[in-house]
Amino acid sequence: MNALLVDDSRLARTELRHLLQAFPEVTIVGEARHAEEARHQLRGLQPDLLFLDIHMPGETGFELLASLEAAPHVIFTTAYDEYALRAFEVNALDYLLKPIQENRLAAALAKARSKYAATASAGAPAPEPPPATPEPVLTPLTEQDQVFVKEGERCWFVRLADIRLFEINGSYTQIYFEQHRPLIPRTLQHLEQRLDPRVFFRANRQQIINLQWVETIEPWFSNSLKIRLRGGPEVEVSRQQSVRFREMLSL
Length: 251
Description:
This is DNA-binding response regulator. The protein is of the alpha/beta class. It has 2 domains: 2-123, Response regulator (Rossmann fold); 146-249, CATH 2.40.50.1020. It is built from 7 helices and 15 strands.
């Protein structure tokens, strides 16, 4: 905290400067002998803390404060105890009687530290959030790509062209290729984003089919479709997706 000492007594300023040596968090940036000099110092130095005498030649300490648009935190230092109530009415941090006791000075500075920390926190710019880690960009897969599939102790390296169906099974997705039906911990939404939409078609909420494996198509209930895949199984296409299927594959 930067502090300005304002007192018409050089001896009083010297004594206060000596006492403040025990508090390394306080840096004395200037001294003033009266209100006018203090005003000039306040404009130039902008201290955090003002040690202010009350009785001075010309204006009193109270009159100095009244003339300021903004004032730092104030600790009054005076030989007169009758102004204590008025001092707290102008929001002084403390009111120290001369000769100033070190324990009273320590208590006043503890209040000043608390106020200073609160002011610094309120006035500091909000810390910038750390840069967001970009989501990994997943490259779309083509039907000729091979994918690694693992279920328990078994592993496969499968061409997507050989997978005829992805189907929800509980909280997993089941993959149909050859005679195998492994389960993988992926959602259909995730798979749909990776797969080529010209080859893999979302038939309904539970299934994605490989169009290259379609064997037969027939009309079904409510203007929907039923598709049979080579090697099975049969898949019912939802009504909404049946409309999309016709639009996508019609001439």
